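S1.2 Input.
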Amino acid sequence: MAEPMEVEEEQALDIYREFAPGVFWVGGCLIVRFRTPNIHSHMSAYVVKGSERTLFVDTGHPKDGSRVREHIDDLVGDRGLDYVFPTHQEYPHAGNLGLLLQAYPEATVVGDVRDYHAYFPAFSDRFRKVAPGEQLDLGDRQFVALPAPLRDLPSTLWGYDTQARVMFVSDGFAYSHQHLAGECDRMSDELGRNPSEEEITFVNERALHWTKFVDSDPMFEEVATLLERYPTDFIAPAHGNVISNPDAVVPLMREMMGQLQKAF
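S1.3 Output.
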């Protein structure tokens, strides 16, 4: 029988940070009560503010909806949102989509939009399919839709900002962190350590359950190809601190996910 795990909303936490020029990290965390009392799991989303157009990556968790909306308003002002890019249909990634469509009537939902008309039939004319490799012009930067080598749904997409060289990886490169150390809004190189084995495996064996059964090495080869084609200074996951030292963290993630499969 699986060990019990409790999830608690953290009402006070508020992530709001520009970590690269024109790219803002917003959202919050969930406290997970499991063995230790202070495991936190990010529920992050990102605003990309171009000189002409704006884009929101994922939507944040509904528990953070009002604060996420406040931050978007503060960042985009009267310009509003031009695009919303939910990486896939799960709750932490698309749970605020209805709220955003109502709040920003000019916004278009882009990505793999195969199911959204069923959830939001009133907004069916505002969904636009964007395939891997297609680009959205934000003015001083392009946002590129990417295939997602590490994913939990067939519809998952990643993204890339050409100006700040940020790769948005949805559930990829997920890891937990310790709230009591004040780590919620720190980037990986600001933590003073790399993610531990427990922090990496705790999230991935739940968010990406297939890692127990499938050899992840071929997928990391696809990741390496993407990183070579799209030089990346920052990796922005939905469920982990922003990775500001990819050269150190990516090999560690590959090793730990490989160990999950071997342990099974």
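S1.4 Remarks. Helices lie at 65-76, 91-94, 97-103, 116-119, 197-207, 217-229, 246-263.
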